[in-house]
Amino acid sequence: MRIDAGQQLRIDQRMKLAPRMIQSMEILQMPQAALEERIDQELTNNPTLELREAGTDDESLRAEREQAERDNQEGERELVVADGDDKKSADDFERLSNISEEYGDSWEANTGESYDSYRRPVRNDGERDRKIDAMANTAARSESMFDQLVAQWRMVETTPREAELGQYIIGFLDADGYLRTDMQTLLQQAPDHATIAELEAVLEKLQQNLEPPGLGARNLRECLLLQIDARERSDRDADLYVERLLVEEYLKDIEANRLPRIAKATNLTLDEVKQGILGLRQFQPHPGRLLSDDAPRTITPDAAIEYDEDEDRYVATLTSGHTPPLSISNTYARLARDNGVDKRTRDFVNTNLRNARWLIDALQQRNMTLLRVINVVLEAQRDYFDHGPQALKPLPMTTVADQLGIHVATVSRAVHEKYLQTPRGILPLRMFFSGGTETESGDSMSWSAVQAKLQEVIDAEDKSEPLNDDQLVDELKKRGIDIARRTVAKYRKQLNIPPARQRREF
């Protein structure tokens, strides 16, 4: 094997994007919540950026901007970085490759030259500090399940040894509250040479004392039995014989919906079995989730869709949400023109003025692109808004890109995590872009519309004799939709619809 070192010349063409274009693409891809946070961050870090005062008309804003551009032509020039330029600008180019469909934290980085070494002048004009207000209005971090259970365990009367082992076991409970680690594995890592008997005794004590009941169970059967025990301890008049019998012996039959078999094996009537299953629904199969603070995600629509009766069409209006209107500070614009100011200060101000203008331009470009894309969607999916999900048509992003004369990647960024407030509820914009199939009549139907039709067929079936997948294929074919059985099975699973045997009602 021989290793040589040498030099080689290569000529190739590469396209590099200026920081301004990178920032524009990042702003376009941001969902509303991230955009608002980015603007708040820029307002905090960039002293030349300020909120537009109420009552400022567009004409005065335009005159102000034109004057600022004339006075700062040098700062408005596009930055193009060649090989050997400073590393900070090169890092901006590198960020482009990290922009993906799953939006990350790239928005936290500043575009252009850094000004972290400077500090924004402290204002003392009586205005409230936006950053302090935001911190004051932020909800306190909730306690984890582990912390809550440890606090409960400390209130239980235990020996020091039990307290130590109990906290050790709590650390192995998963998000559902289950102990899915076997005792042998626990024993290998347990403190002070514990025994399996000790661990099992402490686990039993945990199961009897932690709230909600069912925590520390090793499977669903044990979890439900622990809750049945707790209910009987708290309510001595509770009659849970049937529920206990079903959990101890017939969980698999319940899962497979074999109710007649359960009735025959237990000498119970079918109604008694059904009543027992109904009673089991009052228990929590995942008790750990009751201790987690999984607040629902807040969605801020990017646009509102309304029907215009006069023009017989749907109209889109961008919703600003909490996005504040921005403008350039006249004070800093004049400071940049003052030759009496030292060069370091003027460079700092010019850099921030340029970043502020880029941000405002990027916001305007974002709004324009998003509105154009939404208008194309409204025109293409008019039937959906009139008739519902079954009328949704296939709409590839390439079609929208060709119609608007933009790149398909721009369309993808424009629809990423954007939501519309429509007469049919708040919907993700990406929902309107999908492939599809043709019906026997020659009409196009999206895959989402096929799923809606499948849901309609299953909702209308005879529950005592539900349709299997082959029969569902036949029913869809009667409605002009010819798809394979495996496709029906896949869509049924995506809709969380169980197979025919489990849908049967007795």
What does this structure look like?
By secondary structure, this protein is an alpha+beta fold. Among the domains are: 218-283, no CATH class; 303-321 and 363-432, no CATH class; 436-503, Homeodomain-like (Arc Repressor Mutant, subunit A, Orthogonal Bundle). 50% of the residues lie in helices and 6% in strands. It has helices spanning 19-29, 32-45, 58-71, 73-76, 87-96, 130-136, 145-154, 160-170, 183-189, 196-209, 220-234, 241-249, 251-255, 259-266, 270-280, 330-337, 343-380, 382-387, 397-404, 408-415, 447-459, 469-478, 485-494, 500-503, and strands at residues 49-51, 303-308, 313-318, 326-328, 419-422, 425-428, 436-438, 444-446. Strands 3-2-5-6 form a four-stranded mixed β-sheet. A hairpin with a 5-residue loop joins strand 7 (436-438) and strand 8 (444-446). Helix 22 (469-478) packs across helix 23 (485-494). The longest helix has 38 residues, at 343-380.
Secondary-structure topology with pairs:
Blueprint: H1 19-29, H2 32-45, E1 49-51, H3 58-71, H4 73-76, H5 87-96, H6 130-136, H7 145-154, H8 160-170, H9 183-189, H10 196-209, H11 220-234, H12 241-249, H13 251-255, H14 259-266, H15 270-280, E2 303-308, E3 313-318, E4 326-328, H16 330-337, H17 343-380, H18 382-387, H19 397-404, H20 408-415, E5 419-422, E6 425-428, E7 436-438, E8 444-446, H21 447-459, H22 469-478, H23 485-494, H24 500-503
Parallel strand pairs: 2-5
Antiparallel strand pairs: 1-4, 2-3, 5-6, 7-8
Family: Belongs to the sigma-54 factor family.
Domain RNA polymerase sigma factor 54 DNA-binding: 348-504
Biased composition (Basic and acidic residues): 50-91
